[in-house]
Amino acid sequence: MLSAQRAIFIAGLLFLTAGTSFLALDQWRFSQVLGEMNLAGSPDAREQIKMEEGLSDLREAEEYLAQNSLESAQKAHDRFVHVLSRDLGKDINQRASYGIAASLDRLGDRNRAVEHLRSLRGEGVQDKDLREKTEYLLGRLLILFGHDEEGKSILQELLASTQNNLIKSRIHTTFGDYYRLTGQKKKAERNYRIALEYSPGNLHAEVERAELLDDNPRIRYYYHEDYLIDSSLKKKNEKPASQTQRPVRKPRKETRPEKEDSKEKPGNAQALYEAGIKHFRDKQYPEAVSKFQAALKAGPDSELREKVLYWMAESLSAGGEKDQALEYYTAVIENPALSLDQAAYIQRGIILFDRAKVKEAYEEFKKAASQFPEGAYTNQALEWQREVENILQDRERLKN
After folding, report:
1. Is the pLDDT of residue 242 over 50?
2. Which domains does the chain have, with CATH numbers?
3. Distance between CA 96 and CA 58 in Å, rounded?
4. Closest CA to 343 of 376, 318, 366
5. Please, is 331 exposed, middle or buried when counting C-beta atoms within 10 Å of its C-beta (0-12, 13-18, 19+)?
6. Measured between alpha carbons, how far is 146 from 178 in angstroms, rounded to an integer?
């Protein structure tokens, strides 16, 4: 009997021990889960999430600013202000402040843009690239809008210190704009020429210099101000939606198949593009076409591809190859980037109009105006649209 009681006692003791062990294991597992939950909700984790969201907003704002419409500039401004309000640290705040100033300039509120740039410059921008961009834009606004000497001083100091050829080219372009506005054509032409030496792809300088040399506006050229947005914060294939822009298209098919199998190195795309622009400027259209074809094979990103395709079309058109030019203007429109789409529609319309295809031309001008109501060339598109519409109405009246 005692043996049976002892066995029962031992079994109970073992059961109790096992239960205690399982309870301890459950408590350990619970503590692990709780620890993970606390980690996700820790101040460091929350701060990291906040920073990632801020950087995403900053990238989106810069993408909007890179687009060529007033609506996009307003959206960029609002997002930059939102980023700045989150106070994510000095570096992010200063980038957002620069973006606010650039978007205000695009929106025409240059006094407030100058205030933001002065404040940013007064803080002392640690990042070298951002500091140079800030000084460039501040100097440009001052020299062109009533504060000549201060603007000149800032730009001359920056010109003496910077090693960035794009900045140097932009500074000389600004000097060219200033001298042109003040009637000093020789000084203006000289500065545009120097700007092109630093950056052959500077279309602003090319347009203004060409007009100075022959006093004949070149409506074939299109460009918009480059606010030197920090490309390191951009994500590939990331483009915010805009009601003024056309819907995102499916991946583009090649308009013209490329027979050659050889590939240029990707890093050469920009250099080949600039070489093509130089040939175009010298009216060496076959050579320009050759360079642009090589640039396309070098695998440019969407924005550079947009420019290469457009200037390929311009070169073909200038050389008399209108059919091929139409194909490449279409390729510009099908390319994911948007910067030269409106110009491509207008150029297609002009070629069709010259061929007496008035109705087709009208549709091209209509698209240029309706799809980009705040675009840089909307007024020109509307003028063409009205002119062609009058012709069509006259034809209808003659029929009756």
Report:
1. no
2. 50-226 (1.25.40.10), 269-399 (1.25.40.10)
3. 7
4. 376
5. buried
6. 10
pTM for this entry: 0.51
**Tell me: the pLDDT tens digits for 285-295?**
899 999 999 99
Alpha helices in the chain (DSSP H): 2-40, 43-66, 70-85, 90-106, 110-123, 128-144, 148-161, 165-181, 185-198, 203-214, 269-281, 285-297, 302-318, 322-334, 341-354, 358-370, 378-399
Please spell the DSSP secondary structure of 234-271, one letter per residue: --TT-----TTSPPPPPPPPPSS---------GGGHHH
Q: What is the pLDDT of residue 344?
A: 92
Per-residue pLDDT tens for 207-233? Answer: 677 777 765 444 333 333 444 433 333
Give the up-direction half-sphere exposure of residue 51: CA atoms within 13 A in the CB hemisphere: 10
Query: In angstroms, rounded to a whole number, what is the distance separating the alpha carbons of residues 132 and 135?
Result: 5
